[in-house]
Amino acid sequence: MPNNSTKILLLTTLTSGILISISSNSWFGAWMGLEINLLSFIPMMMEKKNIYTTEASLKYFIVQAGASSMLLFMVMMSAMEESMLINSDNLYTQMLMNTPLLLKGGVAPMHWWFPGVMEGLNWNNCLILMTLQKSAPLSLISYQINNDMFLEMIIVTSVMIGAIGGLNQTSLRKIMTYSSINHTGWMMSAMITGNDMWVTYFTIYSMLTLTVVSIVKTTKLSFVNQMAMTEKKNKLTKFLVFTSILSLGGLPPFLGFMPKWMVIQAMMTNEMKTTATMMVLMSVVTLYYYMRMTYSSLMMLHLETKWLIAQPINKTPKHIILLTSISITGLMMSEMIMNLD
Amino acid sequence: MLLARESVFRSSYFSEFFLFMVLFLMIILFCSFGSVDLFSFYLFFEGRLVPTLFLILGWGYQPERLQAGIYLILYTLFASLPLLVGVIGVYNSSGLLCFFFLSDPCLSRVFFYFCMVFAFLVRIPLFLVHLWLPKAHVEAPISGSMILAGVLLKLGGYGLIRVMVFLVNFSFNLNFFWISISLLGGFLVRLVCLRQTDLKSLVAYSSVAHIGIVVCGIMTVNYWGFCGSYVLMIAHGLCSSGLFCLVNIVYERTGSRSLLVNRGLMCLIPRMSIWWFLLRSCNMAAPPSLNLLGEVVLFRSLVSWSWLTILMLGGLSFFGAAYTLYIYSYSQHGSFYSGIYSCSIFYVREFLLVFLHWFPLNLLILFRDVVSFWL
């Protein structure tokens, strides 16, 4: 049964797996890092007292192990084609090798395992699944990406499925899943112009997701209708919920707008106008389900149920307040920082 | 608008936060009207959505405000995120975004024209995409309605004026589409106003009607059209905002926005009926008001664009006067609703509020050369 020290060990091996796969010279090293990552995440997901985690970890294992073996097979095939084990320039082999990596990262149209797995995890593991577990596959994709029809199809599908799939969900974990799929579509389009923009998008997205998950974690919520259960006089929690979720949606005075702006600018420079417009229209759809989460915090005078999940103000952890204040003022701060030179 | 919200302080209903939101919105609006750069204009244009949403959803009166907030956000964002794409397209093709230097046409595709124009047309509501406006105005608290009607709609008009300058080569061919929609729409909306019973929704629809002519004026890309639409935007802001104040004054007393309940008000609050009359006469562009100046200039620009607009403009102004007079006489004259037990007299605060709305409306026409010919 995992306790805290086991979890720390597993987190260490997880991050070391990510680092190994990102920084390796050959595809074998990358595959090895991905396997270490997978094998250390599976025990982290398990919990003795919850039967849903078993199902989730089994699903995760099957999908990821299948993807890893497919990746190994593709690496072998491209090695036989090109007679080398490092990145090739052949478009077909790149597409072949990107596909299992997309499956590992939960990018549409290979995202079908993602909501089911997220539903069974506790919020800490959900956060790791949404942020850290994506970094390794997406890095490997970014090393061999080129701007062809395959990528555009992946981007458009991701953004559309992330937007439309989240519309009918009531479970908060599934909503975060679909928002993650949507943002991964944006990240894939950020990869076109090189490494910096994708890493910036990923960092900001991770920070915003960390904010939202931290707020939800303290009150142990799982469903959208439970978000209405903070007390009326708990203005701080309501404000935090509202700003962090709308920042994730990309509304302008918040930090979440900045990566979207950068990506749109990059896409326009690369003459991808229709894709940019489609992505932008789908992000309006995502705002609908983000706003559904924030209804109770926006409407300030509402009837309270008797059985409240009370979260007193003095118990709101400080890191949430720090993160939310960064997400509110981040746009202006980043502009000032960028204009310093 | 702070005056109108004295009841907020009385019930201590998150009053500091309300003040903060109103101030924040005011700062954002200042920045958006004062921005020299197209992108910072876009940023503040979008940034005013969040405080407006907060004001509507937080301090509105009915549960329908949820739907109103969703309509507001989704309608305006659906149109204005492609505006972001268009702005960046302008930057890519001409290398700069400063308003002063963007005078020659620099875009090469109709797609960009639609992106840039559509955002402002949804914001300053064009007839077919105006559905968010009655909902948002009706559900908003009084100061939210006033800010919405007074200033936020004018952001759309201001953006259109700024953007038309470099979209000229498309607009010569395509603007007839928007002009015909607005003219016909203005006519239809005035007919709708004639059968409204909800006072606030009536003022909202009359907003749409006025703004229809403003849009036509901007779309003709005449000098007279720009000047007239600028004047009518200022006049409409003051007039609609004042009308919302009056409706709210009545609402605070009778608890209902329905026209069937709020009638015979001249018997109850005679001091208020003069303000009703003055603001209503400005609404239908009666002589010493700024609305008259705006409408005359706009009529001239539209008729010079095509004489066929005379047909619609005649119908427009006739039905405008018709619904205004009907509403004035229905709400003021006659006997009052027998279900009213008590009705407080006019406070000085309300008097001041309405006076400050009416005073520039009828005074600025004396300075019309300063007001209208600034371009």
TrEMBL record, chain A:
Subcellular location: Mitochondrion inner membrane
Keyword Translocase: yes
Topology class, membrane: Multi-pass membrane protein
GO BP, one annotated term: mitochondrial electron transport, NADH to ubiquinone
Catalytic activity: a ubiquinone + NADH + 5 H(+)(in) = a ubiquinol + NAD(+) + 4 H(+)(out)
Broad class of the protein's primary localization: mitochondrion
A UniProt-annotated Pfam family: Proton_antipo_M
Record-annotated membrane-spanning stretches: 7-22, 58-80, 149-168, 198-216, 236-255, 275-291, 320-338
GO cellular component: mitochondrial inner membrane
Domain spans labelled NADH:quinone oxidoreductase/Mrp antiporter transmembrane: 24-286
Record GO terms (molecular function): NADH dehydrogenase (ubiquinone) activity
InterPro entries (UniProt xref): Complex_I_Subunit_2, NADH_UbQ_OxRdtase_chain2, ND/Mrp_TM
The organism's place on the tree of life at top rank: Eukaryota
E.C. numbers: 7.1.1.2
Swiss-Prot/TrEMBL keywords: Electron transport, Membrane, Mitochondrion, Mitochondrion inner membrane, NAD, Respiratory chain, Translocase, Transmembrane, Transmembrane helix, Transport, Ubiquinone
Entry coiled-coil feature ranges: none
Protein family per UniProt: Belongs to the complex I subunit 2 family.
Role, per record: Core subunit of the mitochondrial membrane respiratory chain NADH dehydrogenase (Complex I) that is believed to belong to the minimal assembly required for catalysis. Complex I functions in the transfer of electrons from NADH to the respiratory chain. The immediate electron acceptor for the enzyme is believed to be ubiquinone. Core subunit of the mitochondrial membrane respiratory chain NADH dehydrogenase (Complex I) which catalyzes electron transfer from NADH through the respiratory chain, using ubiquinone as an electron acceptor. Essential for the catalytic activity and assembly of complex I.
Protein name (record): NADH-ubiquinone oxidoreductase chain 2
Source organism per UniProt: Zootermopsis nevadensis (Dampwood termite)
TrEMBL record, chain B:
Keyword line: Electron transport, Membrane, Mitochondrion, NAD, Respiratory chain, Translocase, Transmembrane, Transmembrane helix, Transport, Ubiquinone
Domain NADH:quinone oxidoreductase/Mrp antiporter transmembrane positions: 35-317
Catalytic activity: a ubiquinone + NADH + 5 H(+)(in) = a ubiquinol + NAD(+) + 4 H(+)(out)
Keyword RNA-binding: no
Known EC number: 7.1.1.2
GO molecular function: NADH dehydrogenase (ubiquinone) activity; NADH dehydrogenase activity; ubiquinone binding
Transmembrane spans: 12-35, 41-61, 68-91, 111-133, 145-170, 176-193, 202-224, 230-251, 305-328, 340-359
Membrane topology: Multi-pass membrane protein
Protein localization: Mitochondrion membrane
UniProt cross-references to Pfam families, sorted A to Z: Proton_antipo_M (PF00361)
Gene Ontology terms: biological process: ATP synthesis coupled electron transport; electron transport coupled proton transport
Protein family (similarity comment): Belongs to the complex I subunit 4 family.
Protein name as annotated: NADH-ubiquinone oxidoreductase chain 4
Source organism: Zootermopsis nevadensis
